[in-house]
């Protein structure tokens, strides 16, 4: 397949690629309305990259004189990442896991909100998204050097530790308690979405009106494109069959987030078979269906993060129906199958554009 590659300086973007929308805007771009509100925006942004959250995180600020906003934004990413991870000792989530079956653990308001939201999604999805999937993810360790395919006996044992109803929350004291020893909370499927939203808050508090947050798989755009107040960002949709940075098409958005989950991100190969990192909580194995990736376009990245995991597990038909019938207006999805077909929800019919050279085709 011929793929169209988008570049961020010399580096490929890790999830989607962003640019200014220009189709049917040639005349408008030079008009007074296009220039209104952009006099304080730079064509070349203040941009910084750091390796955090297990990936390259990139922040871009287009407001003139707002370079200083990058420092507190990156500090927020590091702080939250350190408190949420289960792969480093002494994080708040690690402390919850250590006290499983023993006693409740008081956590910060940030972490309590995240845990509570994760449980709500677990209940709503009936476990398709599961905040205590850790007993399975820690067995497989996909994405880490010690990744392996566990035995069936190990998987069967881990499956007994996935009951999200055994997560007790105390709103008044902001405590979290895992009722059964051996339960492991893992918020990897929702954490980056929450962090992206928090970074956006910091940047807006610092006076940023136009910017891009890229947390690798989670893209959030603040305001409109630097090219004009009437021009939205183009947000590229990742090709699930190639490395990050290769896109199959794009959607337009302002103050929106696009979150993508797919088989391309992390996987383990054993005896010629690939096992990806999105697990079926009923079998303890990676989800096995027709989907290669799911992308969500919505307002809050925390919702996009949880939904991509949930919808991937639900599969194409049930996932499409869920978005159309049970999500707020303005939330839409793009499903890409292993056969190279692209399905979109109704809200994207006049928005999503498929790259003619992508090698993919729109489903009928």
From TrEMBL:
It is a lipid-anchor. It is found in: Cell inner membrane. It comes from the Bacteria. Residues 1-22 form the signal peptide. Its EC number is 2.7.1.180. It catalyses: L-threonyl-[protein] + FAD = FMN-L-threonyl-[protein] + AMP + H(+). It holds the Pfam family ApbE. Keywords: Cell inner membrane, Cell membrane, FAD, Flavoprotein, Lipoprotein, Magnesium, Membrane, Metal-binding, Signal, Transferase. One of its GO terms (molecular function) is transferase activity. InterPro entries: ApbE (IPR024932), ApbE-like_sf (IPR003374). Its cofactor is Mg(2+). Belongs to the ApbE family. Flavin transferase that catalyzes the transfer of the FMN moiety of FAD and its covalent binding to the hydroxyl group of a threonine residue in a target flavoprotein. This is FAD:protein FMN transferase. It comes from Enterococcus eurekensis.
């Amino acid at each position: 397949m011929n793929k169209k590659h988008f570049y961020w300086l010399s580096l490929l973007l890790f999830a989607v690629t962003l640019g200014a929308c220009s189709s049917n805007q040639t005349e408008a771009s030079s008009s007074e309305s296009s220039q209104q509100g952009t006099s304080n925006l730079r064509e070349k942004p203040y941009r910084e990259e750091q390796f955090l959250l297990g990936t390259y995180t990139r922040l871009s600020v287009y407001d003139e004189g707002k370079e200083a906003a990058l420092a507190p934004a990156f500090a927020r990413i590091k702080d939250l990442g350190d408190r949420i991870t289960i792969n480093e000792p002494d994080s708040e989530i690690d402390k919850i896991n250590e006290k499983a079956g023993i006693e409740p653990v008081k956590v910060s308001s940030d972490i309590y909100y995240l845990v509570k939201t994760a449980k709500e999604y677990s209940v709503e999805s009936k476990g398709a998204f599961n905040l205590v999937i850790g007993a399975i993810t820690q067995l497989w360790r996909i994405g880490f050097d010690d990744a392996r395919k566990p035995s069936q006996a190990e998987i069967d044992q881990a499956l007994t530790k996935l009951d999200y109803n055994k997560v007790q929350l105390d709103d008044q004291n902001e405590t979290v308690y895992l009722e059964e020893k051996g339960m492991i909370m893992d918020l990897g499927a929702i954490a980056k979405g929450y962090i992206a939203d928090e970074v956006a808050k910091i940047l807006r508090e610092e006076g940023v009106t136009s910017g891009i947050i890229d947390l690798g798989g989670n893209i959030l755009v603040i305001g409109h494109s630097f090219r004009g107040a009437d021009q939205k960002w183009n947000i590229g949709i990742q090709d699930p069959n190639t490395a990050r940075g290769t896109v199959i098409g794009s959607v337009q958005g302002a103050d929106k987030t696009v979150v993508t989950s797919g088989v391309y991100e992390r996987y383990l190969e054993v005896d010629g078979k690939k096992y990806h990192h999105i697990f079926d909580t009923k079998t303890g194995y990676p989800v096995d269906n027709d989907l290669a990736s799911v992308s969500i376009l919505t307002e809050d990245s925390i919702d996009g993060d949880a939904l991509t995991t949930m919808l991937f597990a639900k599969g194409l038909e049930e996932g499409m129906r869920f978005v159309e019938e049970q999500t707020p207006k303005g939330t839409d999805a793009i499903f890409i199958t292993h056969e190279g077909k692209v399905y979109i929800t109704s809200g994207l019919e006049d928005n999503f554009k498929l790259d003619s050279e992508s090698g993919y085709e729109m489903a009928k």
